[in-house]
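ok so I'm stuck.
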Amino acid sequence: MTLTILSALLLLASASALPQAQPPASPNIQNLTMWGTGCPVGAAGVISEIRKGTPVFNFSEWGLALPNADDPANEATAYKFCTEEMTLNNGPVGFQVRIETVTVFGWAELEEGTKLAIEAETKLGDVVAGQQTVTITKADLKGNDFEVPLEILPFTYSSCVDETGAVPKIVIKTTVSLIGEKRADGTVSKGVVGGAKALGAHFNPVWRPCARPMAKAI
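replied:
not stuck anymore, here's the structure
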């Protein structure tokens, strides 16, 4: 059921980004795999809504807290990551794709001095497509909520979808880190992200026609 919903959502996102004169094929997901400390087996992301035509994943295992009781030797930092790997077929022949933005949102409680770092890395097929990191503090929160759009740079497109309709594999790795400030009295500034609430992530794919080779001079 989840793959069917995600296929439909990806089609909506693709259709909105492609020229209407040349409608795309309907990409279908052959495989969707997630792994990492933020999305362990049995607790993978759940599609909860559509936001601006893209799927939103919620991760219930993405909670972090400082000091980090699981790693007392390095109590000033704590992090988790999740990698999503998607294989699509029946893609728009003659087009290529890039990931324009990855947005991460959720709930956090940060003391003064504590930083929340969010990083997104992308890969298209065998090509490392780009990444971005954003750091926020207590002053950046709205109440206890945050929503961070990460613009993926550089603007790297995948190889072209050939006549088989196979789309280069899309891989998105999102890392969330809490970084505490070590004070003069030996204490560390505290912070919680996620808590009892799931964190969310979604991405925005952009398609374009592949450049056509120039005709040979006669």
